[in-house]
Design a protein that fits this description.
InterPro entries: Acyl_CoA_acyltransferase, GNAT_dom, Plant_NAT. By secondary structure, the chain is an alpha+beta fold. The protein is built from ten helices and 15 strands. Helix 10 links the parallel strand 13 and strand 14. The longest helix is centred in the C-terminal third of the chain and has 18 residues.
Length: about 425
């Protein structure tokens, strides 16, 4: 019949790298068209659409195709891991007096958590319910694999994304961490002479993390897998000069038994080998100004000018994770570690270093960053996937108040 509207069939299915790569890359390109006349950040996944979840214990990707011609119109990625969702006192402490309870060791409470990343719908096929179907398809896989909660990160001002997840998919606003980004300058950053930085073995790093940070929200139970991953470039411990050195270091056990008054730790993850970033939409004036700062910085490095890297070409980034510390001078230790991470990134040709921490993190102000490059409030939304799970010691995690710190897994950055 003339003028008859034929409704095209939408199919949601598992991603096939042998046949779907070009279609997925085409959707990614169409989705990353920035607003006219404004700076936009573009991501190149280096030919691997699953790269940002591939290092997780379990991962999955769905694609949406429409019509007899099987046009690729959307995709979604997800992964599952086990993380800390709260803490409890040891059973021994519960059966003793109040003094024993005060000295009791807190133990982590774990849950199986799913993460949604990289939901994309082609601009020409939006407002057709495709995004909702992709989310529901991914949640079905989460439930089949025993995940108790699902969460995602989105920009606070991305109203379309926030509405989809909070109004249609049943997610609630949960945490608002800060993404802090610092450019890598043409000069090395000076690390305080009053601080000694020690590179730890993966075993020592794991011991310190499990002993001091395992009750931190979102701490991954498989931290050993993260630390031993080839993308982890190292874990670094900062201590006051004279307390320990690389030569006198005899292991984490003794350190934990008698730590200095102040110390800090962080690990570095190499996202440069996973994806690259590029800023587009910059005016010729901004490009020229940025280039001028680099020329001056290279010619006069002793001035330590805050030069702007060439963000207008693809650049790599290092992610600092597991950042934490103790003591009245922990902030000084953190600054030294960030300087170490900056210099490592410079040696490896990266354009920026970044981290993500709780907006309530006590050490947040010690982390060098440029406000213009950073995001003061990222938004994490969460959803309980089923009501048949035990509330355990924590209760419904989605209703829990935020703690001071969170552990951001670099495998999902």
């Amino acid at each position: 019949m003339v003028g008859e509207v034929v409704e095209k069939v939408l199919v949601i299915r598992e991603y096939d790298p042998k046949t779907d790569l070009s279609g997925v890359e085409d959707v990614e390109r169409r989705c990353e068209v920035g607003p006219s006349g404004k700076l936009s950040l573009f991501t190149d996944l280096l030919g691997d659409p699953i790269c940002r979840v591939r290092n997780s214990p379990a991962f999955f990707m769905l694609v949406a195709e429409m019509g007899d011609e099987k046009e690729m119109v959307g995709m979604i990625r997800g992964c599952i891991k086990t993380v800390t969702c709260g803490k409890k006192l040891s059973r021994k402490a519960k059966n003793n007096n109040s003094e024993t309870i005060a000295k009791a060791k807190a133990l982590p409470v774990y849950t199986k958590l799913a993460y949604i990343l990289g939901l994309r719908v082609s601009p020409s096929h939006r407002r057709m319910g495709i995004g909702l179907k992709l989310v529901r398809g991914m949640e079905e896989w989460f439930r089949e694999n025993g995940a108790e909660y699902s969460y995602l990160a989105t920009e606070n001002d991305n109203q379309a994304s926030v509405n989809l997840f909070t109004h249609k998919c049943g997610y609630s606003r949960f945490r608002t961490p800060s993404i802090l980004v610092n450019p890598v300058f043409a000069h090395r950053v000076k690390v305080s002479s009053r601080v000694t930085v020690i590179r730890l073995s993966p075993r020592d790093a794991e011991s310190i993390y499990r002993t001091r940070f395992s009750t931190t929200e979102f701490f991954p139970r498989d931290i050993d897998s993260v630390l031993n991953n080839k993308l982890t470039l190292g874990t670094f411990l900062a201590v006051p000069r004279g307390s320990y050195s690389a030569e006198s270091w005899i292991g984490s056990d003794q350190f934990l038994a008698d730590p200095p008054e102040s110390w800090a730790i962080l690990s570095v993850w190499n996202t440069k080998d996973v994806f690259t970033l590029e800023v587009k939409g910059a005016s010729r004036v901004k490009r020229t100004l940025a280039r001028t700062t680099r020329v001056i910085d290279r010619a006069l490095p002793w001035l330590r000018l805050p030069s702007v890297p060439d963000f207008f070409r693809p650049f790599g980034l290092h992610f600092m994770y597991g950042l934490g510390g103790e003591g009245p001078r922990a902030g000084r230790m953190v600054r030294a570690l960030c300087g170490q991470a900056h210099n490592l990134a410079k040696e490896r040709g990266c354009g920026a270093v970044a981290t993500e921490v709780s907006s309530r993190e006590p050490l947040r102000l010690a982390i060098p960053h440029w406000k213009r490059l950073s995001c003061a409030e990222d938004l994490w939304c969460i959803k309980r996937l089923g009501e048949d799970y035990s509330d355990g010691s924590v209760g419904d995690w989605t209703k829990s108040p935020p703690g001071l710190s969170i552990f951001v897994d670099p495998r999902e950055f």
